[in-house]
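Trying the structure run again after the queue cleared.
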Amino acid sequence: MSVKSISKSKQNVVLRTVIKYPILPTLAFFLVMVTVFICLSPINKLGQNIFLSPQNLSNIAEATAAFSIGAFAMTLVLLVGCIDLSVESVISLSAVSLALYIEAGLPLPLAILCTLAIGIVCGATNSMLVVKFKVPPFLATISVAMAYTGLSYLLSDSRTIITREPMLTRIFGSLGSGASFLGLPVLFVWTLLILAGMYTLISRSKFGRWAQATGGNEQAAYSSGVNTRFVRMVAYMLMGFFGSLIGVILCARLSVGSPALGNGYGLNLVMAAVLGGTSFAGEGGNVFGALLGSLVIGVLQNGLGIIGVNVYVQQVITGMVIVSAVVFSIYISSRK
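Done. Tokens:
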């Protein structure tokens, strides 16, 4: 066998491995990125590497928690062959609603339940447009996003509503408090619990098999007896529920409800899911990959800030990562 044939054979093996495990390039990028940030990070007065300091690692875990929770649900939405770009508006609307409920004196448990119900209603609305009226998911969700955003500004009268609810803060921890449970940041504990639940739903349940069949080939799934409309409805309603949960978390940690709280979350959640190996063609569905994708985003933003990269340059780098992830996802889908 010639050297050229051996080289080509090795390339084919690598390609097949990457196609089978699309999370591997993300893992490799994550490890290289962490190594670079460790090497470039300055040292603080205590002689600690700032990037590796316990406080900074805790900050990363807390900052990526909301991304991770949303990315788990976005993974399911992508898995059924759809997309949801209204999530950041649902987050804003939920944060404003919770703040208004608290301001009105509603008991906290009831206020949280009513807020989560808003997210479910938003998800049901999205699913009705996509499933019943056959509106393309991109157009449907980006259109209702404008309505949800306008409603959040209308309800709040464009103001930031201060909320100081001790019990809410104890549940999720306030920003920079370092609140922990069993030695782990409290939000990271929430992330692990939700990770376990979504992993069971997607990878270990009959519904998860229905979802994978729906995204892979909707017509074939329908012909085999899968209620594809129900599957997509549940996916969107779960996305709305977790969007509202993120709104509750942000409201609790910042002690404010504002229409601007959800800004920037929508595309980041999609990017985290795609980086984690879930493709736009309804393949993948790895929630552990979504967690890794969220960590890539969180570490990238955190590390660039620590080493002093200009904020606009950070946006350029983040954009390049997004484009690379999308191109790679499309390439892998085409090779499959």
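The radius of gyration is 21 Å. Worth checking whether this holds up in the mutant runs.
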